[in-house]
Structures are given as C-alpha cells and as structure tokens.
Amino acid sequence: MSLTITKRPGVEARPAAAGRQRRRTKGGVSIWFAAPALVLFGLFALVPLGGVVVLSFMSWDGLGTPAWTGLDNWQGAIGDDVTRDAFVLTIKVTAFSWLIQAPTALLLGVFMAGRQRYRAVLSVLFFLPLLFSAAAVGIAFKSLLDPNFGIGQALGIDWLAKDWLGDPQLALAVVLFVIAWCFVPFHSLLYQAGVRQIPASLYEAARLDGAGTVQQFLHITLPQLKYTVITSSTLMIVGSLTYFDLIFVLTGGGPGNATRILPLDMYLLGFRSYDMGRASVVAVVLVAVGLAVSIGLNRLSGAHKMDSQMEGS
Amino acid sequence: MSRTTSRPNVLAGTGGWLWLAVIIVPIYYIVVTSFRPRSDYYAENPLSFPAHPTLDAYRQVLENDFLRYFGNSLFVTVVSVVAILAVALTAAYVVVRSASARARRIFQVFLLGIAIPIQATIVPVYYLIIKLGLYDTLWALILPSIAFAIPLSVLILTNFLRDVPKELFESMTVDGAGELRTLWSLALPLSKPAIVTVGVYNGLTVWNGFLFPLVLTQSASTRVVPLSLWSYQGEFTMNVPAVLAAVVLSVVPILAAYILGRRQLVSGLTAGFGK
C-alpha cells in the first residue's frame, strides 16, 4: 500500500505572526511536544537507516557480534550471480508492473470518476483488494491457481489448468498479475481523484467543438492528469523495489530463483543464510535506487511540487 | 469530471465489468471454499456453490488458536494506532504553531523519512530489537510500526492543522490556556477528520503487516494474524477450506472498518492530492 502527499508551497510564509510565535516558542514548551515522535522515529527508523550502511561493511550471522570486513560484502555481492540476477529481475518486474498497472489504473480511474450510478457501485467493489493483507492474497491465489483443483478445473478450460507457479516463465507472469490485482485499486483511486478535479468547462467547450469521447480523453483528460501520472508512476516504481510479502508467500522466490527479486534476495540472504552483511548490501542498493527514482521523478513534476511517498505492507 | 453524455459508453462499461470479474472471482472463490466440506474440496467444482455448506473449516481454525492470534493483532494494532495518533498530533502541532527554524528542521526530517522503504532497514531493526531484549514480544512489532508510521501521519495532520484559522489558536492563548489545553480542546476536536483518516490507514497497515512479525517474532504466543495465515498454510496442507476460512476471518475487522469509514479511508488514501 502506498500514499502520496503533496507538500504545499508557502510552508514558512507566515511573516505576520512570526514575531509573536517566536517569542512563544522561546518559552520552550512547544518544541518538546515533538520529542516523542522524534525519539521513536530516530531510534527505529533513522538509526536503522544509518545502521544498514554500517552493517554492509561488516560480517554478522545474526547471533554473535558484528565484525568489520571492509569491502568484502560489496565485492561478494557484485560477484554473486544470484544477487545480480535478482537485480536484473527487479528491473524487469518494475518495468512490466508499470506497463500493466499504469494504463489499467488510468482507464479505471477515468471510469470510476463518471457520475453514473452503476459506476459508483462498481467503485466500491473495486476497492476490496486493498483490504486484504499480502499474506492473504498470496495464499488465496496459490490455491486458486492449483493445476488440479483450481480455476482451470472450475471453468473446464485446459489453457487455465497449467502449473502456474511451477514454471519459471508462468510464475513471473502470475506474480505480475497478482501485484496488479493488489495495487491497481489504489492507483485508480488516485486517478479518480485527479479526474474529478478537471474543470467541467473544459469538456463542455470540447463538446461544443464537436470532440468525441476519445478525443476528449486524449486532449483534455490525459494532459490534465500529468501530475497524477508522475506521482502514481513514482509510487509504482518505488513500490516495485519493496514487494516482499506477496512474492514471499506466493512463490518464495521460486521456482528456482525465477521470482527472487531484490527485497526477497535480501530477506533470504539475511534470515535464511544468516549473512546479514550481504543482506545489508542489497538493502543499501534498494534505498539508493528508491531515493534516486523519487528525486528524479520529482524533478519532472516541477519545482513547486514535492511529492513524497511511503511504501510498505 | 461531470460527463453527463446521453450516449452510454459501451467500451468503458465492458471494461468496468471485466475488471469487476477479475476482482470478484478470487474473493468469491475464497468465500465459497471456506464453506466447503474438506471432503468435497477435491470433488466439487472450485467455483460452484458448496452442495453441503458447513462451518467446519471455521471451527477448525478457531480450535487452532485463531482467537489468540486475533487478540495479538488487535493489541498490536490498537496500541500502535493510539500511540501514532498521540505522537504525530503533538508533532504536527509543533510544526504548525511554532515558527522557529528548529521546528522547520524537524518537519524536514520527517519528510525525509517518507522515502525510506521499511523493508530495507529490517536487518538493523532486527539487531536493535535483540539488543533491547524485545525479540519475540509484541512490543517488537509495536515500536517499529509506530516509528515508520510517523512521517506520513505528521504530514497529513500538519496539512490539516494548517487550515485551522490562526485566530482560533490566538484567542485560546488570550484566554490564558496553556499549550496542552489548546492542543486538547482545540486542535484535537478540529482535526477529527484527519485523525480518522490517519487512524484507519495506519490500522489497516499495522493489521496487515507481515515483514515485522516474520522477522521479529517466532513463537506461537506472539503470532499475529497475517503470520498465522502463513503458518496455517503449512499446518493444514491438505485442508484448503480451513486456510481460506482463516483468510476470511482475517479480513472481517478490516471490512467492518471499511463499511464504517469508507469515505474517510478513501479520502485518506488520496490525502493531500491535487491542489
């Protein structure tokens, strides 16, 4: 699940009240109100963030005391085929997830923004996947896709009665589909909100000029949704770097290493092979790529908009 | 967009119903299978309505400690959400009410936190939890959950509190109310919609969280619902209806929250958007 907040410009533009407020905060009461949040956030988020960089230069089996090993972990990670494959696979999953989710979410968002009664009812149902935990979704799809007792049997279509999770190519396709099932609802909500803010007068003018539905979509809806597209895409791309629980439950990274993306590689290195140093190297790469993508796409969205995102669960 | 075209858009309609099928079929499958007798699972059409519907699967799950896991999840979620709201609201209050450079820097630290992917810090969090002697306790789930929820919660509450007219705060001060009093009897009631949004969103995230429980707990006494689904899957390998019954039970509280607060949840998920 992911969220987006737009920080509004003019955060500090309060010259009139500034003097009085400054005097009040000199008393020192106010600032301490933020202390509990700062301490908790610092201890359990900022310290681990620094810690992951430090641990990437250490060797630790999860039990003893970490010891310095310099660049060993980094050299090991670069020379490791499994991690390298995981890196390539992550890029692949990111690209395909975007290609599947972005158009689907955009079209659904436009659909959901319509005022027709049946569309409102459908929108309520479209939201349902957001309520399920990734563990629940993974388990449900695993049994639904069972070659012998799953959907292939139900519909009597041979094409559907495949060993979906046993074949490397198919397993990857299933993972992409299930990811879309989980996350398209959220992104279509963003698009729905975006579409509803487009002034109706634009459409009225276009209709007077004789523009059809498709033309209206291409020449009004799409350009007007530019920022929504950028923000939603940022969330999708950064989110791809964090898909863990769903794939862990659905395939465990298999068959073989066919669906072992970087977050899974990190978990398996750390908590199955007890090589926390190598796991930390992967984590640092994830943080760096995530930040780079966020900042890069933020530039696109203009100087006044600061879109931020959080991915998780 | 108010598209009141008289001509129905057939293509869009078809697409909409098609997506509905994609969404509903798996959910329908979960529900009908959970009512199917274990013996019929291998015989009946997986998407048919069970010929002999039964609650056996639910009974089995409940007999296998589901209520304890449910209680654990409830405890972790309620404590986390209350704590998140308390610390995030006070922090947002400082950001909005204080014009000092320090308050602005605090806000920037939180903004930075929004870009940190939780997964990437799990190894040091694990180390920290062991060092604090909290491994395999429910507090091992609560404390990091609070920490990672803070940035976004502060942001939503800050954006909301900014819209409260300054004069209201000032009149409280003129009346001699202290900061705590102003926070309690002005900021708190006024930001109720934002508090509901932050509460429901974080409740959903914490309730469904999987990575923290997987890494930071291990015994059955500290197991929470999402992890229990995974372990049921291992225990009941030949009993798919029971596993899916557990899935249904895991969604019930969230569904209840969704029905009660759908509007807040939806607006919360798209919070601060546009403009």
UniProtKB/TrEMBL annotation, chain A:
SUPFAM superfamilies: MetI-like
GO biological process, one term: transmembrane transport
Superkingdom of origin organism: Bacteria
GO cellular component: plasma membrane
CDD domains: TM_PBP2 (cd06261)
Membrane-related topology note: Multi-pass membrane protein
Gene3D superfamilies the UniProt entry points to: MetI-like (1.10.3720.10)
Domain (ABC transmembrane type-1) ranges: 87-297
Pfam families per the UniProt record, alphabetical: BPD_transp_1
Residue segments, region Disordered: 1-20
Membrane-spanning segments: 29-58, 95-113, 120-141, 170-191, 235-256, 276-297
Compartments where located: Cell membrane
UniProt-listed InterPro entries: ABC_transporter_permease, MetI-like, MetI-like_sf
Family listed: Belongs to the binding-protein-dependent transport system permease family.
Name of the featured protein: Raffinose/stachyose/melibiose transport system permease protein
Protein species of origin: Sanguibacter gelidistatuariae
TrEMBL record, chain B:
Highest taxon listed in the record's lineage: Bacteria
Subcellular location(s) per record: Cell membrane
Domain ABC transmembrane type-1 intervals: 70-261
Keyword annotations of the record: Cell membrane, Membrane, Transmembrane, Transmembrane helix, Transport
InterPro entries, per the entry: MetI-like, MetI-like_sf
GO biological process: transmembrane transport
PROSITE patterns registered for this protein in UniProt: ABC_TM1
Membrane topology: Multi-pass membrane protein
Pfam families, alphabetized: BPD_transp_1 (PF00528)
Listed transmembrane segments: 12-31, 74-96, 108-129, 141-161, 236-260
A single Gene Ontology CC term: plasma membrane
Family assignment from sequence similarity: Belongs to the binding-protein-dependent transport system permease family.
PANTHER family the record matches: ABC TRANSPORTER PERMEASE PROTEIN MG189-RELATED, ABC TRANSPORTER PERMEASE PROTEIN MG189-RELATED-RELATED
Protein's name in the database: Raffinose/stachyose/melibiose transport system permease protein
